[in-house]
Write a structure and sequence with these properties.
heterodimer; A: alpha/beta; globular; B: Rossmann fold; six-stranded mixed beta sheet; four-stranded antiparallel beta sheet; 12 strands; 28% strand; binds adenosine-5'-triphosphate; binds magnesium ion; SufBD_N (chain A); SUF_FeS_clus_asmbl_SufB (chain A)
Amino acid sequence: MSALEEIEVRDGVDRETIETVQAMAGKYKHGWETDIEMEYAPKGLSEDIVRLISEKNGEPEWMLEWRLAAYRRWLQMEEPRWAMLNYPEIDYQDQYYYAKPKSMAAKPKSLDEVDPKLLATYEKLGIPLKEQMLLAGVEGSDEPRRVAVDAVFDSVSVGTTFKEELKKAGVIFCSISEAIKEHPELVKKYLGSVVPQSDNFFATLNSAVFSDGSFVYIPEGTRCPMELSTYFRINAENTGQFERTLIIADKGAYVSYLEGCTAPKRDTHQLHAAVVEIVILDDAEVKYSTVQNWYPGDEEGKGGIYNFVTKRADCRGARSKVMWTQVETGSAITWKYPSCILRGDDSQGEFYSIAIANNAQQADTGTKMIHLGKNTKSRIVSKGISAGRAQNTYRGLVTMHPKATNSRNYTQCDSLLIGDKCGAHTVPYIEVKNNSSRVEHEATTSKVDDDQLFYCRSRGMDEEEAVALVVNGFCKEVLQALPMEFAMEAQSLVAISLEGSVG
Amino acid sequence: MLEIKNLHVKLEDDEKVILKGLNLTVETGKVHAIMGPNGSGKSTLSYVLSGRDGYEVTDGSATLDGVELLEMEPEERAAAGLFLAFQYPVEIPGVGNMTFLRTAVNAQRKARGEEEMSAGEFLKVVREKAKSLKIDAEMMKRPVNVGFSGGEKKRNEILQMAMLEPKMCILDETDSGLDVDAMKLVAEGVNALRNEGRSFLVITHYQRLLDHIKPDVVHIMADGRIVKTGGPELALEVENNGYADILAEVL
Ligand SMILES: Nc1ncnc2c1ncn2[C@@H]1O[C@H](COP(=O)(O)OP(=O)(O)OP(=O)(O)O)[C@@H](O)[C@H]1O
Ligand SMILES: [Mg+2]
């Protein structure tokens, strides 16, 4: 194959995406809802509700105690207000904390027993819940790529695919509620070991009321035979979603994990407070990619998800590696700082982010790189795009502890403005407590360039296609860090979330 | 056929008038050249024809095969068959040259209600055309015009033109910044596209390019108007004597 053909395969991704985008008429395309009978816990939050959630999940006593401890701690905490986010007071008593499709009352033993309405929901979202189905649109790859999926619908995990095959490799991939029952020794050992119960207001709330989420364990020396993914769907109204994900990569293990999220269009705001903990032991590597596409609210800022998420990876072992890649296009409010604790010597953390805020969206997002071990390295590439009246803040912390000698950080932080009513802000915190480490920070802010748009249009592209192309170019570095399936989805999302931002 | 009648153009947020009653007709299948002193409005004419923002048309019309161009969006003009090879091609970081070209080709095809070009066919055609312009695979992979040398940018414009197969091609100083060999390549590229259905408007300061691309008609533009029109010999006259005599004669 000549060089030209090879390029075409990679470049073809952008092409197809643009075609897909053009073909899609609507704006937020996952805004429909599933009409399904739900069982709710009573509205509001109390010890009784915490007990009820634990009971519904059939949890052992130790788990309930853990939740209650978190709940009591949470009662004494205050919601953080330091982020550059402006939203009305959240009434924590005016929410449901548990919602489960009635058809899930008895846990289906296999996917064949799952309510067809639920299966149809995921099919419509393009998420393959049948093992012979593949993620759509992976053209040109020689070998079809298989992705195992854990599908979480409101408060419960609907099902997990490829479980048997993964089990053969020694990989555990199941819902966290299942893991609490089936693998208590692992959960007890690691849950809360990266994000403690009392870490922050939202994480503590999550510790008390999390209903489900995914659990992954990759045993020593094992390369996970396929990509793993969790797909979160909020469907019920006035219901918070609090999922909890725990990933453990034992010595020398490798896994690439993907996370996707969508929600129906609703006029009211909905709360989402998730926690993701990743433990990485010696020589292990975890890649965690997110395409966050929660409903962003309408042009006026009515409705949309309030997204308060705590994600943290602990590179506990020597030479361990983590890579966070996120594409944040949805949500009315995003408060999210996937972080890396570089504890092991020679460990590495990377953070690649695209955050798009259009219309009335507000995003305050970034990362923390905590260098504790010697010769640790971190890299941050953040691309913020603001359009409409949106506000987009990059907030990042890099610390080099006294023992983290010979460590390096490189941060690159670029903001792109579309129109003149939006804002971009960069808030970097840097602390270096030893003499041999080095931190580099580069930041740029630019406007989408009229000459570039005219050049594209003079070649026949319409304005939105031109903007999508230019913005995708701006994000290229981060898009390239995503697995191929997600790169395509992400590119089309970039275009969709910027619709109406020009002209 | 491109027909420009009594075109008056001023800057949008300034009183400055640049085109002052310009008349010009390029018949289908012909090659016309425009020469004229710096600042006479040649690039402005090409921008106004392609629909760039920032100019206000206060009078006149410009039609391509009878269809008014000045009311269309830039992309509609492109789909109608107009192409401008920019005097200063624009860089687009992060967007592969190949992706850009294919997006453009298919956008135009779609706008005209035609079948899109398949990936295989596109690749075949683009490789062939890139080769004849000595554009290598590496350059197709790089982001559009980013880090291209002046001459590479100009050749890239001609590649786009060859791929888009426009009816009316405007070349704004495509020869400036080209070395002798590159100029030959570009001229060959243009000549290969010459046919009875396609017209060219070649803006240049030098006879050199016109040695290779033989024009049917040469116009002299000054102060926002076409002031003199003649055969290829007019370009030679400019080359030898400059504009002074011609301008003195018409003013
Ligand atoms: N956007 C603008 N703002 C201010 N002046 C402008 C603008 N566009 C064009 N002009 C002026 O209009 C006149 C014509 O410019 P134009 O670029 O069309 O000339 P040209 O004939 O292409 O010159 P050259 O041979 O140097 O390329 C010049 O005086 C130029 O400074
Ligand atoms: Mg000019």
